[in-house]
Amino acid sequence: MKRLLLFFFITFALQLPFASLFAQVGEYRSALSVGVNGGCLFNRISFDPTIKQAYHGGATVGVTLRYTCERYFKMLCAVQAEVNYAQMGWKEVIETSSDTYSRTVNYIQVPLLARLGFGKEVKGVMGYLVLGPQLGFYLSDKDKRGGEWSAATLALRPNNVVEQYDLPIENKFEYGITGGLGMEVNTKRAGHFMLEGRYYFGLSNIFHDGKADTFGRSANGAIVAKVSYLFDVFNKKD
Length: 238
Hints:
Elements: H1 2-25, E1 27-48, E2 53-54, E3 56-72, E4 75-92, E5 100-119, E6 124-146, H2 151-154, E7 173-186, E8 192-202, E9 217-237
Antiparallel strand pairs: 1-3, 1-9, 2-4, 3-4, 4-5, 5-6, 6-7, 7-8, 8-9
């Protein structure tokens, strides 16, 4: 809880000076856009002790709300919130036997993002940057096992780390930082079309991390590629 409170304090404290600057010298905007997003993500769990993994592939889909509030010289400033369904998890690389293992962990994720755009505001192409905190709420999980999967093959695991197979997801709430770059095509009537890449860095663990627990760290880390479509609810400019 202390880490979570410190995380949000630092995040919002860093945004205050920029918000004050834009409010003083920026050009007024008031545009609300809503829409949908979808794509794929590739996740790994940062385990300590280490477990060798490949990226676990999954889908993400959700809704997006964006409010554009300022134009500072050539930089368009907005805040953006999403509610997404995401398939996280991990896929192990087991080299000591024919065993295979992966687990899909399903979340509702809520990114809260600052967004800076550069380029054509009304018609044309705009590049942009997004950055901010992200919250995650566990829904369910399912594992998949293959190979011999016996006591003999389990005994061959590196560092004898096998506790993850029978552990439920113990922390149902997670948080971290996400950020990325994207390209937006703006049209006057059809709306806004976006292609974007992000990285999510988890700051919390999916398993307990006390002294008596197996893992000191078990945090998500995901590469995300998505497309989005937004349309304007209203768009005012002075």
